Each structure stands twice: as C-alpha cells, then as structure tokens.
Amino acid sequence: MKYTFPENFWWGSAASGPQTEGTYEGDQKGANIWDHWYAEQPEAFFDQVGPNRTSAFYKNYKADIQLMKQTGHNSFRTSIQWSRLIPNGTGEVNQKAVDFYNSVIDELIANDVEPFMNLYHFDMPMKMQEKGGWENRETVEAYVHFAKTCFELFGDRVKKWFTHNEPIVPVEGGYLYQFHYPAIVDMKKAAQVGYHEALASAKAIKVYHELNQGGEIGIILNLTPSYPRDENNPEDVKAARIADAIFNRSFLEPAVKGVFPTDLVDLLKEIDYLPVIEEGDLDIIKENTVDLLGVNYYQPRRIKAKESAEKLSDGPMPDDYFDNYEMPGRKMNPYRGWEIYEKGIYDILTNLRENYGNIRCFISENGMGVEGEERYINEDGRIDDDYRIEFVKDHLKYVHQAIQEGSNVQGYHMWTCMDNWSWLNAYKNRYGFIAVDLDNDCKRTIKKSGQWFKQMTDNNGFD
Ligand code: BGP
C-alpha cells in the first residue's frame, strides 16, 4: 500500500531552546530553573550532565539548518528561551538574544524551512521562580509581556506560534512527582500552577490576535490516551476518565473549547483545591481559544480502578483515583520505559475529530530514544537506526488512516532533529535523525533515518 499525505504537509522535527542552544560566556542569558537546579544539585541529573552541555545550536545553527534541508525538513519547531530574551523574566531585553533569534529565523526562511516558535518549554526564568513561578499570578503577566515582546520582534516572519509545550509536565514534574524544579508534592499548588498556565496561554492568544500579524497561534499538548483495563467494568472506565481529565482534558478543553472539564472542576471542588480565579479570567479563557493544536504522542496510559490503598503523599494526589497497570504483552521502549502503542496516535486524532470540532492539528512530537546507538554504526560511520524508521512508519500509517477518515492533520514533526540534552536523562537516550558526537566537538552525522526521512518527504509518503 502507498501512504501519500496531503499536499503541503509539514514535515520536520521539533526541539527546544534549553535542550539545544547551550550557554556561553558573554551571551547574557539569565539562569532558568534548570540552570539553577543543576548548579544546586548536579547529582539529580543523569551522569551529572547539565543543561549547559547541549548540542550547541547557538553556535552551529547555520550548519544545522543545512542538515535540516538534507533530512527533508520544510518546517522546524524550536522555542525562544524566556531567560535568554529577558534574562530577569521582566525588564530589559537582551540584544544578543534578539540578534540570535533573528538570525535563526532568517536562516530558516532563506532555506525554505518554516519556523514554528514555541514560547515556553519548561524553562521558567529563575528570577520568576524565586517569586513562585507559575504559582504566582505575577508570572502570568510577565509571561504575556514576554510573549508580546516575541510577537513584536519576530512576528513579521514567524507565522506559527505556540504558547506552551506540554503545560501539564511542569504541573506533574514540579508539583506532584518531583522530576522538575521545585520538585515538591502539593496538589493544591499543582492546580494553581496549571490554571495559571492555561490563563497565560489564553492571554497570549488574545494579544497575538489583537496584533493582527496574519499568522496563527496554538498550544502543544502531550496527549496520553487513557485506556481502561476492562471496558466493561464501570469502575475501570471511571478511573480512566479521571486520569484523562487530569492529564489530557485539563488543558485540551480550555485550549480548544474555552472551558475547564466539569469532572475535573468537581473533583477539585470536592477536595477544596480549586485555584484562585480572578474576575474576568474565565471570559478571557472562553474567548481566546487556539487556532491549531500540536499533539505530542509517545505513550498511552493504562488505567484500572484503585486497588491498593497505598498513598503517594499525605495530601490528595491524582493517584488516589486510579491505578496504573502494565498491559500484558505490551511493546516497550526499554530505554525510556514507555509503552509503544502506535494506534494511540489514531485514537487521539479520532477523538479530536469527533469531540473537538475536528480542530486543525499536527503531530508536533513523536519519537524513540535509544541508548547506545554507537553499536549500530556501519563501516561508513553512519548509525543504521532501522528501528527508528520502523517506529516513524508505524505511527505515520495510523496518521494516514485518520486523515483518510477526515481528521484535519497538517503535519508530522519528529522528536528530534539532532541528538540533544534531555531534562533528566542528559544524553543517555538518543532521539535524533542526526547523531551528535559529544567527544568530538559535537560533530554531526546523519543517521539512516535522516536519509530515509528525506526520501520519504520528497515523495510526500512511502510504500
Ligand atoms: C517531551 C518533551 C521534550 C523531550 C521529549 C523526550 O515530553 O517535550 O522536551 O525531552 O519528551 O523525552 P525525554 O527527553 O525525557 O526522554
């Protein structure tokens, strides 16, 4: 069978500023929570490798954009680091950052690679975090100012903007499961943080639309379809529905429909954890929904009704409402511990079509991190990552099917272009189409998957 995609499909990859750029003497970047956390507690990071050791996009972007061309990109997503552009979170703009992002954007456009720009990828400026980060309402206003500054500086050329990447992750990581700074366990604060992120997104969308720059703005969500263990067991179904409300619909519904899910609101009300909402906020959220949606998909959630009485903390936690279980016979990526379930991508797209007005969307991340890829180097020095090609194909087949059935999908971005630094796993797992040799001045070599992607995108599909 031939899998052909719609004309002008966006093919490319995604990355983020904090994971690729690096920090340099004299670049005047301010610290963000990752720089701070690493300085404070390097042992929390894999191999004690911190965010300062990235693939050096700040220095290499011109050559990297050529590699994007060679690997068939017509679009590329990265993020503008708030702490690079406005080092203290508010106040002075760093001219060096303006020059850098201008040059990246111009270089992408000159090479026919459309820039997709995201504004927040887990990287709170430390000066803002000192005042509570997303817990504090002031951060919402500071973020909106940062967003407006970006639109005014770069919006004449950037026509695709995103307010957040995976806003649920700072909630989970920072306030529930302790894998992001400030790494505390407090579901009440988690609710406030999530609410402020959603409000900040709507406010940034409002500002963007008022500026009338002729582009579009969306949000990027990691959607994890939540499957009950037994579809005929109402308790399992109920548990899966709660997990879906907390981890998916918490941001999907306000972003697309302008309202929060009633079951989530009821749950928070019941435990007296509703966030502080100021007058007029809900109207702003209602009136400023997204133009398009980015969908990051890696893994599903397998849920069953609560069996164990085990509590993760003294206070309420999402896990009080459901248990996770391992699907028997599941396919795993053992390096990341994530289940690989290709049909999940189809289920998400079908859900968006049926329940979210068939919102225009694209796959904004999908990928496979593999440890020890050096063992696949062939005699020509290329990594033969056939497993990655299979992974992409297997997911694309389901994307194709959803499109055939009417889903409004406009593109597919792989995580990621070149191997980069990962929040807690540093360089353990490699995700790129292009290998980065850290011991050899970050030398880049296109992997087999990168060559395949070029061929596939030239044909706008594959057999
Ligand atoms: C997504 C993030 C990316 C990236 C990717 C891979 O959730 O948006 O920033 O890191 O996951 O995950 P990891 O690097 O943790 O293996």
UniProtKB/TrEMBL annotation:
Domain of life: Bacteria
Transmembrane segments: none
Residues spanning the signal sequence: none
One annotated GO biological process: carbohydrate catabolic process
GO-annotated cellular components: cytosol
GO terms of molecular function: beta-glucosidase activity
Pfam families documented for this protein: Glyco_hydro_1
Keywords for this protein: Glycosidase, Hydrolase
Active site: E365 (nucleophile)
InterPro entries: GH, Glyco_hydro_1, Glyco_hydro_1_AS
Gene3D superfamilies cross-referenced by the UniProt entry: Glycosidases
UniProt record similarity statement: Belongs to the glycosyl hydrolase 1 family.
UniProt protein name: Aryl-phospho-beta-glucosidase
Lineage of origin: Bacteria, Bacillati, Bacillota, Bacilli, Lactobacillales
